[in-house]
Amino acid sequence: MKENTALKKIIYLILTVIGFVLPYYFIFKFYTANEMSTTAALAQLTALDWGALLAADLTISVFAAWTFFYNEAKRLQMKYWWAYPLATLMVGLSFALPLFLYFRERQLEQ
Fold first, then answer.
1. Phi, psi for residue 82 in degrees, rounded to 5
2. Nearest 10 degrees: CA dihedral of 28, 30, 33, 37?
């Protein structure tokens, strides 16, 4: 069973790193190519129905994840539950979710 937990933690850490690097890579790429403001970038994202659909879907997913982070952290008595919503705001759900799952696995080991 411990091998399974160790493998899950490694996978979560790898996904955390990828979830940190990829969003910033694309943000950097976008801003260097277009020299736009954040407001213009968001307007461009939601200009198409597909972009608006993805933005709405991600918003709902973020609120569901935040609810999960809070409830699961409280249940397992994890410290610093507030760091995961903050990580979502600073980077994105692709970073915050695997980060939370990694620390959740660590807490379950205790």
1. -70, -15
2. -100
